[in-house]
Amino acid sequence: VRAWMAGHMRHVHEHHHNEDAIFNPFLRTRINYPEKLEADHVALVAQMEAIEGVVLRLGIGDWARCWAELGEMWLRYEDLMLPHLHEEEVVGLPLARAFFTPQEIGKVVASFISKGDPVSLGSFVHCMGHKKDVNQFMSQEGIPGFVWYLPGKGFKSLRTIYRKKMVSHIDSLVA
Asked: Which of 14, 20, 121, 139 could in theory staple to 116 by disulfide, Cβ–Cβ 3.0 to 4.6 A?
């Protein structure tokens, strides 16, 4: 649980930094991008850090109480995160697509992907689904097929890293 939470926090902090410091300022050069989409980050991070505190206490003292507290806190986090992600998808991305070309957006996204944490990048590939789904995405985005196979930063390698460092922990808990 601790290892998974550490990876999740790294991913969310990186995602928020990319939005707050790079992507959203870029979008605001042409559009009135909703401040709420950044303001939500404050409450999300506060809840995530509160969860981390409980996670760090797991196994110390009242084990059952910590797990119950963790469950309640996670539901609150989910209640904050899911509407935020939905709003990014139905408000933020359509605005970006309406006022910027795919090439303009692509350059900005490439600037933070090139520096991205492998686990964070791997989550993106993992969540796409099967290899055929990733290949379809790569084709749609003009990404050459060999990128799947690149050692270290290729899509297959990133997906494998994510599965080893994140999915394996969830699989262990479920088992």
From this structure: 121
Q: How far is CA 103 from CA 46, 141, 142, in A?
A: 35, 10, 11
Question: In this predicted model, what pLDDT tens digit does every residue of 6-65 receive, in sequence order?
Answer: 999 999 999 999 999 999 999 999 999 999 888 999 999 999 999 999 998 887 667 788
Positive or negative torsion for Cα 28, 14, 102, 83? negative
**Cβ partners under 8 Å of residue 161, min gap 6:** 118, 119, 122
**Maximum distance among all alpha carbons in the chain?**
55
Torsion of CA 77, 79, 82, 87, to 10 degrees: -120
Q: How far apart are the first and last CA of the chain?
A: 14
